[in-house]
């Protein structure tokens, strides 16, 4: 997969490579998870509701076919119009969204179908109602259960992969990231507001946080980088779809050929050892 060289400038002035990636990941014409799902999969049959509270419109789950393979696909919905985005919490799931996703994963496991998730969200929805209904517990439960799933799992970060909200759908055998996508524990603006008490330092924060695809790949947080057109997926959607299609098929078939116990051991070891740092004395 292609690699991009990044500047290590500590000042993070506007226009730094890291902030350029942020702008590309947030481009209004960039394909959303449902755009990838509609283009790459056929016979998508949606599963609704968490059987406990509600059907979260920020999360879509459904059975589908991918190059002849029966799979479960999950993606967050961001909405096209302002009204839709408000209704879908700008793609940020409530706890019932994560519980719906987990319910669908358990169905996929029952029928021995690989699970593929698409992620483009700055974080889980932080509203009062979400906290009252157990947002943290829902995220934690997904992490526990995804670590134990007996079927192949693949997570794709197509835009922003933010905090525990993203991780709750990304504890997978393989984590793929598009070349101009991001994976972070907090948005650059929020980080700047905490570190320098001024969100205007967002470019500096983006540079320091090491959130670009190549940087998180070096940390071991993702397994593969999916190439994009030169300026970004918004420049040539067809090329972006084709690039992800071939990369995803490779990983699906590789995981299906792997013995189950070997997959489980590799998955658990990967997340136990992720992003470790050692200091020589």
Describe this structure in words.
The chain is of the alpha/beta class and 281 residues long. It contains 12 helices and 8 strands. The protein has helices at 17-25, 33-40, 82-87, 95-110, 128-132, 135-148, 163-167, 188-195, 202-209, 213-218, 237-256, 260-272, and strands at 42-47, 59-66, 69-76, 115-121, 153-162, 174-178, 182-184, 224-226. Strands 1, 2, 3, 4, 5, 6, 7 and 8 form an 8-stranded mixed sheet that branches. A hairpin with a 2-residue loop joins strand 2 (59-66) and strand 3 (69-76). Helix 1 (17-25) packs across helix 9 (202-209). The two termini are 36 Å apart. Its main location: cytoplasm. It is found in: Cytoplasm.
Task: Please summarize what this structure is.
With 281 residues, the protein is of the alpha/beta class. The chain is built from 12 helices and 8 strands. Helix content is 42%, strand content 18%.
Structure characteristics:
single chain, 281 residues, alpha/beta, 12 helices, 8 strands, Acetyl-coenzyme A carboxylase carboxyl transferase subunit alpha, ATP-binding, nucleotide-binding
């Amino acid at each position: 997969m292609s690699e991009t060289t990044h500047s290590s400038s500590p000042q993070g002035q506007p226009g730094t490579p890291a902030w350029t990636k942020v702008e590309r990941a947030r481009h209004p014409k960039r394909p959303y998870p449902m755009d990838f799902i509609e283009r790459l999969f056929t016979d998508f049959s949606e599963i609704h509701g968490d059987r406990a509270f509600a059907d979260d419109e920020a999360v879509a789950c459904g059975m589908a076919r991918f190059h002849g393979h029966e799979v479960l696909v999950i993606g967050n919905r961001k909405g096209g119009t302002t009204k839709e985005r408000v209704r879908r919490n700008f793609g940020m799931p409530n706890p019932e969204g994560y519980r719906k996703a987990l319910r669908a994963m358990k169905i996929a496991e029952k029928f021995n179908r690989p699970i593929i998730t698409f992620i483009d969200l700055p974080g889980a929805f932080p509203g009062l109602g979400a906290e009252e209904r157990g947002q943290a517990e829902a995220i934690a439960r997904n992490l526990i259960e995804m670590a134990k799933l007996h079927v192949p799992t693949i997570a794709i970060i197509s835009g922003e992969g933010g905090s525990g909200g993203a991780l709750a759908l990304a504890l997978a055998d393989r984590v793929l990231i598009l070349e101009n996508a991001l994976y972070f524990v907090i948005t650059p603006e929020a980080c700047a507001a905490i570190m320098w008490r001024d969100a205007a330092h967002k470019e500096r924060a983006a540079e320091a946080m090491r959130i670009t695809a190549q940087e998180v790949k070096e940390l071991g947080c993702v397994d593969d980088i999916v190439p994009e057109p030169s300026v970004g997926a918004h420049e040539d959607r067809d090329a972006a779809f084709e690039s992800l299609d071939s990369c995803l098929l490779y990983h699906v078939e590789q995981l299906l050929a792997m013995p189950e116990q070997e997959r489980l051991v590799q998955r658990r070891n990967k997340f136990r050892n992720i992003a470790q740092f050692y200091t020589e004395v």
